[in-house]
Design a protein that fits this description.
InterPro entries (chains A, B): Acid_phosphat_B-like, Acid_phosphatase_pln, HAD-like_sf, HAD_sf
GO molecular function, one term (chains A, B): acid phosphatase activity
Number of strands of chain A: 5
Keywords (chains A, B): Signal
Number of domains of chain A: 1
Radius of gyration of chain A: 19 Å
Pfam families (chains A, B): Acid_phosphat_B
Organism (chains A, B): Aegilops tauschii subsp. strangulata
Strand content of chain A: 5-15%
Shape of chain A: globular
Number of helices of chain A: 12
Strand order of the largest sheet of chain A: 3-2-1-4-5
Oligomer: homodimer
Chain lengths: 280, 280
């Protein structure tokens, strides 16, 4: 009896969340606005219809025909679910609503609030050697406009269309991360971008960041041609170089566990939510 | 408008979840059953009344007068929120319903499903040297019967009443963890309990485990009198001793990050949910 009621309630609650988000989160809800504005577009319209039926069967609480999506997402964020290739098929609707509604933003805000509380607790040396490492994708910039029209991670990764999107240089800044970034600049901690994006994407990445009002970073570290190895090896190696050059990594933030695992991790790490993809 | 609707929906959904749990989760819902059975008991009855008003103001989605409780819980599980002393006051009702309803069990099941999938993927040496480390409190045994009558972690820790509860030896086994435990025994991996409980609690802890049908462990490692140091130092030190004695830690599971951080962590770690308390 209880189970029969829940999907309906969840559907109504989710609709309420989506309806409320455009006023409060212009950046994050841009994809939704795009979807609405281009409802006649064949490439986009099926998404809208695909989301609805999923709510009843594979929604927030349901486990009919698949994993319970909220528990799966928690498993991802707590690093219990690893090495996954795609969002479970029954969770496309759940992840879509999570990302487009206010939930993703609310979860991100708690992370950034913790980062700022940590920052406020520090006694800084102020010697110009203190840095904070930022990942880019789903950390500083959001690729949600792309994922919103490509199944929110529930469809196979398409390098061609994804890279075409990156080369547009149009990814919006994540507002919570930007709040942390700006605060760091005011206290004299130097931001360092450390990204899995490749060296050939430097110009468009710089242009994208600038268009989003982001500037003042010390380094933009991109993956060099020919590098073979995991994200953990790559990123911890780059952090080691920073440390060897005399920098103190006071903080490190990313949306993937591979951004923040592997010594030297940084004095404190922060994991932003990302239920759309996994990088090992 | 959307915000006004949400608390009502959440309250109904939560009530549905609570109503459904007694049939499905006799162990976890024992405290609730106790509460119902002893509603005339002054010590217990106020809990029921305390939970209800909190739903409207500090429930799952609300952030009126406090943190958004679901985002706070995610922050705890993803190790973004650290060193916290108590559950935020506005989240007592949220955490209570999370723990007593089906949500906690569902989240735990995903973790154990991952652990068993990992186990199934292993090529075991079968040489009697493979072990799996288990924490006890909120990992193998549940102290929910205690916390259900002491504010679910939203009230100051009371060592006297908590220790009195431990000495009853009545804590129920967590059914998902027991499923993993039994599976390990069948494949020849030896369970090792590694707990912050102290040596003087050995007899009652053994009795409690046995009463819950748990047996066959290799070691029960308790904290020795006079040990000073963090949980991470204590537990990683004990794991190092296991490794030095020739054991291979194929897995390590706990409800606290301090159970699973600090080399040697074990080949793979699992973090069970626990929004009630933090041990650093």
């Amino acid at each position: 009896m209880a189970m029969a009621k829940v999907p309906i309630l969840v559907a109504v609650a989710l609709m309420a969340a989506v309806a409320s988000c455009s006023a409060r989160e212009p950046n994050i809800c841009m994809p939704l606005a795009e979807v609405a504005a281009t409802a006649a577009d064949d490439a986009v319209a099926p998404l809208i219809h695909a989301l609805r039926p999923l709510l009843g069967s594979g929604g927030q609480l349901g486990s009919h025909g698949g994993v319970p999506c909220d528990s799966w997402r928690l498993g991802v964020e707590a690093y219990n679910v690893r090495d996954w290739k795609m969002v479970p098929a029954n969770c496309e609707g759940y992840v879509g609503h999570y990302m487009l509604g206010s939930h993703y933003r609310r979860d991100s805000k708690v992370v950034i609030d913790q980062a700022i509380a940590y920052l406020d607790s520090l006694r800084l040396a102020g010697n110009g050697k203190e840095v904070w490492v930022f990942d880019i994708d789903e950390t500083m910039l959001s690729n949600l406009p792309y994922y919103a029209t490509h199944g929110f991670g529930a469809r196979p990764y398409n390098a061609t269309s994804y890279n075409a999107y990156v080369l547009e240089g149009s990814a919006p800044a994540l507002p919570e991360t930007k709040r942390l970034y700006n605060k760091l600049l005011t206290v004299g901690i130097k931001p360092v971008f450390l990204t899995g994006r490749t060296e050939d994407q430097r110009a468009i990445t710089v242009a994208n960041l600038r268009r989003q009002g982001i500037s003042g970073w010390m380094n933009l570290l991109l993956k060099q041609p020919g590098f073979k190895g995991s994200a953990v090896i790559y990123k911890s190696g780059e952090r080691q170089k920073l440390q060897d050059a005399g920098y103190v990594i006071v903080g490190n933030i990313g949306d993937q566990w591979s951004d923040i695992l592997g010594a030297p991790e940084g004095a404190r790490t922060f994991k932003l939510p990302d239920p759309m993809y996994y990088i090992g």
